[in-house]
Structures are given as structure tokens and as C-alpha cells.
Amino acid sequence: MMKVIRNLTLTFLLAFVVGWNAYGIYAVKPEVISVEQTVTISEPNVVDINQMHCLATNIYHEARGESFAGKVAVANVTHNRVDSTKYPNTYCGVVYQAQMYVNWRGNEVPARHKCQFSWYCDGKSDDIILKTADGKIIKSHMLAWEESLQIATQMIEGNLPDITDGATHYFNHNIAQPYWANHYVQVVQIDNHTFHKSQ
49-197 domain in CATH 1.10.10.2520? Predict the structure, then answer.
């Protein structure tokens, strides 16, 4: 939201240039100066911490070992899905979109391999492990998590370009050749991921 302060009048009263003295040698006549200007103050973009955390978690799990550009590209795809009418309109909605079922404990969980991002439904822990069991920081994980948080924040604030040219899909070309790849246009390959968008 923009707040506009118009006709801000600054009035300066100039008295003595050097200061008062008994003889009045340095005394000057007071002068009034009026300046009018328009000042625009914009409120910073408010980042929803829950949405930022969902996006950062996805970046971390999908691209922890990738370069900065590789992480930004994953953020771009997630953002492009949020902007698409084919997917949920929030980062958390996109990241956790999955076919769900109730397990033997009565908990609703994602069906294995039936989600948008493989880390969420691969049957493994989704915890972000930053320390070893004896409390030592895992430096590579910590750096990747910090970078993921930074990228997520910048993406939500609208400060990152789309380096994927509108891609909504990607896959790791070293371990998979998904059937859907032939139905989309390949736009770019960054690190271990190949990115695609609708034709």
C-alpha cells in the first residue's frame, strides 16, 4: 500500500551563521525558506512466513545439492505453478499437492509417488537435518537451508527473474525420463534438472 505525503513544507529558519556576538558583526537577518515536494513512501512486501517456509522447504529438498541458479529455477517452477490456474494458488498448496490416503494409524498421508514433488511422498523423512546426532552442524546442509530461505523470501517479494521461461515442470535427467516430458516443451537445463513448460 502506498502512502503519499503531498505538499510537505519544510521551513528553515536561519539565524546566525557564526553565532551571536556582542558587536553584531556576524549577525545575519533571519530568512525563511519554503520547499514543497511530494514524497512517496511504499510499504515493504509482507512475506507470509508459512508460505516462505513451504517454498524454502521445497527448494531445499529438490535442489539442496544444486547451484544457486538451480535452486532459483526450482523456486521459479513452484512460483509458476502458484500463478497457474491448473494448480493451487499458494506455495504451500502447490508444494504439498498430493493424492492422500488414510494409513493404518488413521493418519492422512500422501500416497507414495502420487505427489507433485517426489521428496514429499517418497516414504522418507521430510525433516531438514542441519546437525549430526552429537550436535555438530552439517555445514553443507546449513548453507543449503540458508540459501533456500533467502531465495524463497526473494521469490515471494518478487525480486527474482524467471530463469526457466515459465516452466511448470522439471525432472532430474540423470535418474528419470518421465512419460510426460514428450508432452511439454523443454526450455532449459540447469545443473541436474531439465525444465519444461506447456506447448
Answer: yes
